[in-house]
Amino acid sequence: MIAVDVPYWAQSLLRVLGGTVAVLLPAGTIVYLFLFKMMSFMQSRLGPMEAGPYGSMQLFAEVGKWLQKEDIQPQKADKQIFKLAPLIVLVSTFLLVAVVPFGPDAYFTNFDAGVFYMLAVSSISTLGILIAGWSSANKYSLLGGLRAAGQLIAYELPMVLAVLGVVIQAETMNMQGIVEHQNAGEIFGWNGLGNPYILTQFIGFVIFMIAVQAELTQTPFDMPIAESELVSGYMTEYSGFRFLIFFIAEFATAGVFALIASVLFLGGWGVPFSWFGWHTIDDVDDWMNIGGPLIMLTKMLVLTFLIMWIRFSYPRFREDQLQRFAWKVLIPLALLNIMVTAILKVMF
Amino acid sequence: MTDLADRQKLSYIAAQAADARLNVELETEGMTLNIGPQHPATHGTLRIIVRLDGEQVVWAEPSAGYMHRGYEKLTEVRTFPQVTTLINRIDWLGSFANEVPFILAAEKLMDIEAPPRAQWIRTILFELSRIANVGLFLGDLGVQLGAITPVFFAFRDREYVLNLIEAATGGRFHPNFDRIGGLKDDLPAGWITETKQVMKKLRMFCDEMDDLLFGNEIFQSRLRGIGVIPADVAKQYGLSGANLRASGVDWDLRRDQTLPMAWDKVDWKVWTHPDGDCFARCWVRLQETREATKIVDQLLDTLPSGSVMAKVPRIIKVPEGEAWVSTENPLGEMGYYVVSKGDLGPFRVKIRSASFNNISIVPWVLRGVYVPDVISILASLYFILGDIDR
Q: What is the DSSP letter of B336?
């Protein structure tokens, strides 16, 4: 079996569809299913019921509401930068999707430093948040922005270190390569499930998910937003569609990080190759270009469920407790994980 | 500063040190932050001006009065039975409890006493409003600390209590049910069995809160050792209610004074906590809610029969004199000093509301803490804006 042989236009179409699935659907479905309904059921209430059947059109109602609202800018705000900030945050999300593979040929780009690129662009959003906090000319926003900067830098490090374990095991930084290694791999000679790194890199997975939670400023780590104390942190002064962009970016990023986590730890788009007698990525059948995105979507929903579940269950840390947790617990643990992984890698 | 836990001493020293540092290192420019009047953490329109050094508070000052409604003055132009409508609105979460001390003061002046059944029902409704008030506090505490789920459980279960109050009195928030000499009506049919079921639900709610919040490590780390108020300081600032009991002072007006109410007829316990920190204040409130459900249960079992209204004249004129009655309300000690000149209405009423005295400690306790702790301390002190500004 050779690599898929489809015309260029079909490939482009697939990639556009992949993009829709990767960015718009995550944002939509997360908000629909997870924020509103799941949270409502956890809190013993029904959630939105009016817009559409069972409130399924609620997102459209909300977007319509926000688009109608006045675009307020504080008088002393740094106008240009104030307008730019939400876009920077959103761009970071879009750049992240670029390296996520959805099938053997369904990807935007496939280059060797994929993991490195992913870690690099994920911190661009920090810049947007920081300038949003500063340019709002509001004390609460400033505190929120500074907290966000401190927190995101602190949690970038455990995330990098957690991913390093995966990179050592897969011997590549190519996202597609990591997927291939997981599905074609074996655990001590047993290849019934491939080698999804959640089994062999469990500590790395936990650290990665905690770091993602902090990176997304979701609840145990939502000090930068902290509605009850900083009103809404760096978003306080934003209204109308600029707030909407922040809002979409927040949930789309949750979806995209869930996609990345499923590529790194859950085997990505693939099924264990041994089930179909494949050996390398070149053997994979064409139908995986359709099946892969669906598998990714399922995994993404599971992981976003996890993120939101934690979000709605816990109170938030204090800033210093949060930093202490990152520097004294997560980073040493991640370093230990890398050491053990490296030793095992050399031995076996 | 005698007989204090180490944690309390450390917190006290830290506050003093923050104060001293302001004087020594005044070169760095601080930031003055207005928390309120419109702020999610102040339950209304309380304004707290804090001066920050980074995220550390070096100076704080509460500024009350944004919702002042002049109730003390308004009572002077009302007749005695009309006053309960006003004072219902002081602590709007536990409104029946506001009526009781005023009515008791008026009864004291007229030298009449409500019949036993009225006393019992008054105590039951008093404790129900305590549950409605403190139950919401437990949920709100979670929101203040970032956990949004508990508040919905609190609202769900508070609804049962409000339904009970509505069934008995006709008003969910403002019953206006207490009369001089007794009560407006007797209890409706079936109320007793229903109340017992609701009390069972509320005990489950308390267990749920115990699991969800009080057993949570993050919750504990946010509250333990934060905002420590030693017993002597608490007394000096005139704290009352759960805030005082959390500092280890065993003082509860329900037990410590004789009133024509039914608290001394039942078996219950006054909970105190030695720590005096935010966690202690919240924990004492949780235990109080549990005790309140027990009090209601026992009172329902021993409810005497008879009339709910003593013999009072059709037009109530209170004889000349002065009376002071205070009770242990959900928020703390609430008292009315009523002066009558023998007219239809009172000549002067001084209202001592618990929250007003409880927030007087804010400048002392906020000194040297971080901004997130400001929120936990304010949440644990638990004030209602109507109770501060009345």
A: E
